[in-house]
């Protein structure tokens, strides 16, 4: 019998361990995918820690909802190896990206196509075993997306950081027609957001990050202007450059300061979409919502339909591929450690 080799969480706040089990035989509509690449994401760090930092020393416990040993990893690209009897549409040998935000299929969110928001979900690498492994079991072929001619590393990254950025940019609706979009926070999601915004919108976006190297990278990748939000003059400069404020912004950092900056440069009728999870507490005089006709909206990853749209957009060649660094699966823990230490530029992808 084929073995499933994986690097698993065996205890919270402890290094991943190699665990080897029998490979599951796909039943019903299930599909067994042999993994080629799995990206390493910031949220994997929180899963390993067992909590998210909220604000003022408060944390959100995320250690429930999964049994250990558990396999992290949700930016998966692989090859269809075996399929259950009810998964005839799965083509054995096909190279696919795996949509990981899989819901229960029964609740109101799932029925509305928002499986990413399902409360009783089977999100791969979050509540069901994920991609730091040789294989992953997927409940239905509809979650598998052909990605040729993209690279497997890029296709995998599109399933989380790419999808998050795409879903956030879509929520800006028609506002980007009225001026440049502002992107705050240029980590993995932010740089992906820049590449996707270049593909979606007529005007190149303006960007903000406290890190000069990230601002330079964004300018090199086509940002129109880059601002340091810690500079007291930055707000005025954005207001002047945009003729009274931006209509559309994404906060990919998700801290008190990043959201203050994004809302502070908003023009009337403007909107900020928040995807970042850095933490902190945001306050705003309530009257400002009406006075500025302002919208603040949050988004969490994206839907299966959005994932398919994004892969289509990328396959058309319109999204510049992001820099990725490949490391062998055995180095999963080292990759997490480097990400935790903030030493990573671009996306780290595990090769299996
Ligand atoms: Zn992720
Ligand atoms: Zn559901």
Could you give the topology of this structure?
Layout: E1 3-9, E2 17-22, E3 31-39, H1 42-49, E4 51-53, E5 59-61, E6 70-71, E7 75-83, E8 95-98, H2 108-111, E9 135-138, E10 144-146, H3 152-170, E11 182-184, H4 188-200, E12 206-208, H5 212-220, E13 226-227, H6 234-241, E14 246-251, H7 256-264, E15 266-274, H8 287-291, E16 295-298, H9 304-315, E17 324-328, H10 332-340, E18 347-351
Parallel strand pairs: 11-12, 11-14, 12-13, 14-15, 15-16, 17-18
Antiparallel strand pairs: 1-2, 1-6, 3-7, 3-9, 3-18, 4-5, 7-8, 8-10
Helix pairs in contact: 3-4, 3-9
The structure holds zinc ion (ZN) (2 copies).
Give an account of the 3D structure.
The strands form four sheets. Strands 3, 7, 8, 9, 10, 17 and 18 form a seven-stranded mixed beta sheet that branches. A six-stranded parallel beta sheet has the order 13-12-11-14-15-16, sandwiched between helices. It has a three-stranded antiparallel beta sheet with strand order 2-1-6, with no helix packed on it. The chain is 27% helix and 25% strand. The model has no long low-confidence stretch (mean pLDDT 94). The longest helix is centred in the middle third of the chain and has 19 residues, at 152-170. The protein is α/β, with parallel strands linked by helices and 352 residues long. α7 links the parallel β14 (246-251) and β15. Bound molecules: zinc ion (2 copies). Residues 41, 43, 74, 160 line the site of one zinc ion.
């Amino acid at each position: 019998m084929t073995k499933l080799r994986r690097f698993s969480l065996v205890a919270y706040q402890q290094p991943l361990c190699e665990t080897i089990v029998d490979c599951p035989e796909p039943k019903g509509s299930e599909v067994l995918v042999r993994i080629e690449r799995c990206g390493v994401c910031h949220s994997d760090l929180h899963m390993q820690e067992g909590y998210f930092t909220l604000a003022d020393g408060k944390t959100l416990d995320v250690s429930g909802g999964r049994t250990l040993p558990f396999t992290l990893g949700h930016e998966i690209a692989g090859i269809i190896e075996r399929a259950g009897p009810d998964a005839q549409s799965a083509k054995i040998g096909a190279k696919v990206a795996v949509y990981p935000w899989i819901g229960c299929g029964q609740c109101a969110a799932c029925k509305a196509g928002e499986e990413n928001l399902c409360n009783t979900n089977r999100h791969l690498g979050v509540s069901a075993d994920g991609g730091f492994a040789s294989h992953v079991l997927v409940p239905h072929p509809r979650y598998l997306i052909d990605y040729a001619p993209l690279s497997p590393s890029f296709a995998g990254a599109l399933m989380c950081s790419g999808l998050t950025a795409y879903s956030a940019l879509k929520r800006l609706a028609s506002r980007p027609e009225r001026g440049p979009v502002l992107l705050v926070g240029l980590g993995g999601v932010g740089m992906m957001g820049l590449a996707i915004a270049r593909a979606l919108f007529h005007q190149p976006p303006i960007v903000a990050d406290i890190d000069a190297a990230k601002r330079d990278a964004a300018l090199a990748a086509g940002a129109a202007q880059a601002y340091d939000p810690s500079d007291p003059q930055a707000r005025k400069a954005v207001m002047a450059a945009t003729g009274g404020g931006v209509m559309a912004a994404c906060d990919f950092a998700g801290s008190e300061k990043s959201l203050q900056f994004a809302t502070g440069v908003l023009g009337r009728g403007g909107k900020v979409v928040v995807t970042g999870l850095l933490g902190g507490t945001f306050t705003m005089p309530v009257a400002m919502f009406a006075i500025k006709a302002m919208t603040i909206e949050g988004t969490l990853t994206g839907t299966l339909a959005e994932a398919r749209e994004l892969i289509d957009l990328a396959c058309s060649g319109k999204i510049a591929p992001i820099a990725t660094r490949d490391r062998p699966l055995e180095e999963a823990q080292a990759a997490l450690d480097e990400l935790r230490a903030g030493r990573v530029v671009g996306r780290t992808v595990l090769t299996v």
